[in-house]
Amino acid sequence: MDPRALAARARALALDAGFDSQEGFTRAFSRTFGVSPGRYRAGARPPKPEALALHVAHLPAANLIQAPAPARKPALRIAGLGQDFTEVTVSGIPALWRRFEARLPLARQSGGGAYGVCCAAPGAQPLQYGLGYIAGVEIAADAELPEGLEVIDLPARSYLVFRQVMDGGPVHPQMQAAVREIWGDRVPNAGYALARAPDLEVYPEDFQPDRAGAWVEWWIPVQG
User: Fold this and answer.
1) Quick check: 22 pLDDT over 70?
2) What's the predicted TM-score (pTM) here?
3) Domain range 3-222, its CATH number among 3.20.20.140, 3.20.80.10, 2.60.40.10, 3.40.50.1100
4) Cα torsion at 157, 162, 168, 170 (round to 10°)?
5) How many Å is the maximal CA-CA distance in the chain?
6) At CA 102, angle to CA 32 and CA 198, rounded to 5?
7) Number of CB atoms found within 10 A of residue 124's CB
8) Could you tell me if 19 and 10 are in contact, meaning their C-beta atoms sit under 8 angstroms apart?
9) What are phi and psi of 132, to 5 degrees?
10) What average pLDDT does range 182-192 have in this prediction?
């Protein structure tokens, strides 16, 4: 199919599915199923699809609490370690966090919380999966760039906020369940247009993933 026709079809499918843009649909599909809609249509599948299907069937409850309305968050300057991932390498995010945590605390760090910044990887095409991820912390607005790290400045904006309460079990299946519920159900049905901006995982200072009652927030940027 002609690439322009394919792109037009993708935009139509995104609108039919309740998304405001092809980008929003592609981001949701990729984060939920581990492969972009374009590559899925072409026959690409996540590694070991039978095992993936079995794993998905046994995901724990996501335990999500959704804020009743978008919340306006202040500007953030986040410094951290960044890496680009594909659907095959995305399992490397925990290792990125371990490398970053070894460098903490940073000079002029603000607070003790941490942020996972998720955005489209540079150069990724509209129908390709490409996740740019930064494991970072907030630093002062006038702080110097720490050596070996990168900085991303996020302006004040509105986010859909989902708080996930952990059950004390393994953290990664719980977060996978949250990604699927947020992007597969909550965001499409929220009635808000997604903004072209990174979404965030927000970890409080005392976050302990194996403690029942610990929480992490997911901030999804919306227009307005």
Assistant:
1) no
2) 0.76
3) 3.20.80.10
4) -80
5) 53
6) 35
7) 18
8) no
9) -90, 125
10) 89
